[in-house]
Amino acid sequence: MSGVVRTVLGDLRPEELGVCDAHDHLFISSPQLPGQELNDARAARAELEAFRTAGGTGVVQWTPYGMGRRAADLPALSQATGVHVVCATGLHQAAHYAPELLKEVRGGLAELFVRELTEGIGTSGVRAGLIKVAGGFHALDAHARWTMTSAAEAHRATGAPVAIHLEMGTGALDVLDLLCGELGVPPHRVILGHLNRSPDLVVQRQAAEAGCWLAFDGPSRTHHATDWRMPDAVRALADAGFGHRVLLGGDTVVAAARSVSGGPGMPYLLRRVRPRLEAELGKEAVDRILAENPGRAFAVEWS
User: Which PANTHER family does the UniProt entry name for this protein (predicted)?
Assistant: First the structure.
């Protein structure tokens, strides 16, 4: 099995991605967050520069199709700041889209994902490096099953990893039952996001035992009251032998959360989260989580 990390400037060996924010956003817009869009290219560049100054070298943008990815702007930002950027295809929950857009993609969602992974996003020429879809709160509705089925088809065609928004951190085992059980996606190609929002150590351990990746991706918004429990959860996974399955991200989704706007932003991951985790796990273990795990998790693999 061979693999590369597909960035907006081309393919890298997994080890070249370096210290990585494994789940974040440079651009995103949604009717669920009116007036809080990330759509300022200058602010995006400043945020990447701040992350680079803090020691970061890679960012995975999970913004999917139809949510203001601005893929055409990403190569210039990556080149100007020296930060590797990975861009997503995929589809979020139905609430984030106009009904007309969902109707447009209804008959060919897997084909859309494959096209963006292999040919490029629109006319930008930027190829996506992962597929992002979403579950619901403690359940999978028809929309989630449709998008995950399409993601599984695209994975089989391209070898791209599948990243999942878990609503409030819930539904992890239902997602694995569908994606890995019914649809046959290998567990090590699945990344579960937002696990920090539902600090159920038993479910997290079960998900790790299944062989998938576990992303603890916050804080970025003030209602994530479980962030303080994250170090204990990561320590429990590491103590159980699953430190090699953990990912860390910032998940900046509103403009006020950017560090350049006075929020925690991308640098917070390295400025505060990293030393807090080093106190629990030691520097060597945290270095692996930040600088080795993302390259393996986001590699596009082919036989």
Answer: PHOSPHOTRIESTERASE-RELATED, PHOSPHOTRIESTERASE-RELATED PROTEIN
Element (H, E) at 75: helix 74-81
- Token pair 């273990």 is at which residue? 285
Element (H, E) at 209: helix 201-210
Please count the CA atoms within 13 angstroms of the CA of 35 that sit on its side-chain side: 0
Say how far apart CA 91 and CA 134 lie, in whole Å. Answer: 7
Q: Which residues contact 98 (CB under 8 A, 6 or more apart)?
A: 31
Percent of the chain residues topping a pLDDT of 90 = 90
Contact 135, 171 (CB under 8 A): yes
152 with 187: CB under 8 angstroms?
no
**pLDDT for 143:** 97
Tell me the C-alpha distance between 195 and 168, whole Å. Answer: 8
- pTM over cut 0.90: yes
pLDDT of residue 33: 86
Tell me phi and psi for residue 20, to 5 degrees: -125, 135
Number of structural domains (the chain) is 1
Note down the domain range covering 156: 2-302
Selection from 58, 45, 6, 67 nearest residue 248 by Cα: 58
Any idea what the CATH number is for the domain that residue 88 is in?
Answer: 3.20.20.140
Contact 48, 25 (CB under 8 A): no
Strands 190-193 and 299-302: unpaired
Q: At what angle do helices 74-81 and 41-53 cross, to 10 degrees?
A: 30
**Token match 């080093």: residue?**
278
At 223, the pLDDT band (50, 70, 90 cuts) reads low
**pLDDT for 33-80, tens place per residue?**
898 999 999 999 999 999 999 999 999 999 999 999 999 999 999 999
Q: How far apart are CA 126 and CA 119, in angstroms?
A: 8
CA dist., res. 10 & res. 122, Å (int): 17
